[in-house]
User: Fold this.
Amino acid sequence: MTNTLSLPRSVEWEETHITLLDQQLLPGKVEYIELKTIKDVWDAIVTLKVRGAPAIGMTAAFGLALAAQQYETDSIDEFNELLQKDKDYLASSRPTAVNLFWALERMVNSITNVTSINEAKTTLVHEAIRIQVEDEEVCYKIGDNALSLFKKDDRVMTICNAGSIATAYYGTALAPFHLSRERDIPLQVYACETRPVLQGSRLTAWELQQSGVDVTLITDNMAAHTIKTKQINAIIVGADRIAANGDTANKIGTYGLALLAKAFHIPFYVAAPLSTFDPTIASGEEIPIEERNPEEVTHLHGQQIAPDGIAVFNPAFDVTPNELITAIITDRGILKGNYQEGIQTLFNN
Ligand SMILES: CSC[C@H]1O[C@H](OP(=O)(O)O)[C@H](O)[C@@H]1O
Assistant:
């Protein structure tokens, strides 16, 4: 895997703190902040300074490792109690992306057999780094598999940001676009701005520009007209949680794009690592959908754009039923057809 790209990285472990790209300041400012406490990490996840399912999981893993370095106890049992408390605290930051809970569970399980406090502290750091390194390798494979579904000059639509800054590197839905630059398979990307937090205009448009990908920004309500008039060939999106039957939670607006894909008879792809699957839930009905601060809808960069006292519904995600998904692209291959069986096979091997 030769990395000739120079994409921004969302998070880095620095021993005494975590360095984080503050995604709330993009695209105007490319600024990195230092997270020195577990509260800093929790706040960064809640306020979307770091966002994107895999990036949330990685950052929480680093946050748990950082907190554990400060534990002052000689008892392994007490160490584990402190770790469980901090794990539960970080797990309270956001409810939908299963990567957060997957990463935290993996971190706690990593010290099951340690015999000393120092070994526990070192193991936690190494496990968090392993999660990040593995995610970069996984995203490369997702990009490789996704690119096989596109041909030269295809016009592809996407929503939100499932890019390099939402993962360890490369991204999931955006990975094929970054790799297409390296392999001279020019693609045209149409990025939905993704109200209300604007991950599409602020992050995806910026990220794809950084790697020289041909990207055009549209507002979310332009999607149908754009698919028709620009003859979009396919839609590809990320995921925050995929149920055992393939129902997929992703950024609000994704379900609408899936319905448009069906109406226009074009493929609708979901790109995701195995850490975004939740085989413990049967269907999308069980996926918790985060509802966020109404001010994300009533204000734009601090400017009020709706009347005082207006009622607001601000779900951050929606669930696309599996029957609207043409294929789920993973690092282990491309799932099509009976997702229940395909996902079961993925997790049994
Ligand atoms: C590979 S990122 C997956 C996913 O996360 C984003 O949500 P948010 O920006 O609220 O964290 C979006 O749904 C992406 O598709």
Q: What stands out?
A: The chain has two domains: 11-138, 142-348. The radius of gyration is 20 Å.
